[in-house]
Amino acid sequence: MVEFESYRANLEVADLTPTVEFLRDVLGFEVEVDEPAMGLALLRRGGVGLGVVRTPNPAVNETTAGYVGVADVDALYAHCRRHGGEITAELAEHPWGLRDFVLRIPGGHRLAFGQRIAR
After folding, report:
1. What CATH superfamily is the domain 8-116?
2. Residue ranges per domain, the chain?
3. Could you report how far apart the first and last alpha carbons of the chain are, in Å?
4. Which of 66, 67, 98, 103 has its CA nearest to residue 83?
5. What is the pLDDT of residues 11-40, one digit of tens each?
6. C-alpha closest to that of 19 among 107, 110, 118
7. Which residues does 58 contact at the CB level (< 8 Å), separation at least 6?
8. Smallest Cα–Cα separation from 48: which of 25, 26, 30?
9. Torsion angle (degrees, nearest 10) of CA 12, 36, 70, 76
10. Rounded Cα distance, 118 and 13, in Å
11. DSSP per-residue string spanning 18-51
């Protein structure tokens, strides 16, 4: 079987700049590709990639655009709070063994951040 090596969610937005700046400045993503004329930015932090794509009719998922696993969800939650992040689902433990929260980013998308917890 062929091994899959990566996954990148693409987020559609009307304006690249506020979304890219938030992902870079608040969540610590590195901008790998920035092509405003093409309406595209590619960002990475560790093993997580995000594409930000400008479109005249951006679509936003009703739930979340993706789930990012992190090593210390409590620290990230506190960091996002300190930096004015819009939390749409508070930090919570779930019976299926995850502790997570949901953050709305500029452009309207919501990203879930969480970690496995001992059960």
Report:
1. 2,3-Dihydroxybiphenyl 1,2-Dioxygenase, domain 1 (3.10.180.10)
2. 8-116
3. 32
4. 103
5. 999 999 999 999 999 999 999 999 999 999
6. 107
7. 12, 13, 14, 107, 108
8. 30
9. -100
10. 37
11. HHHHHHHHTT-PEEEEEETTTTEEEEEETTEEEE
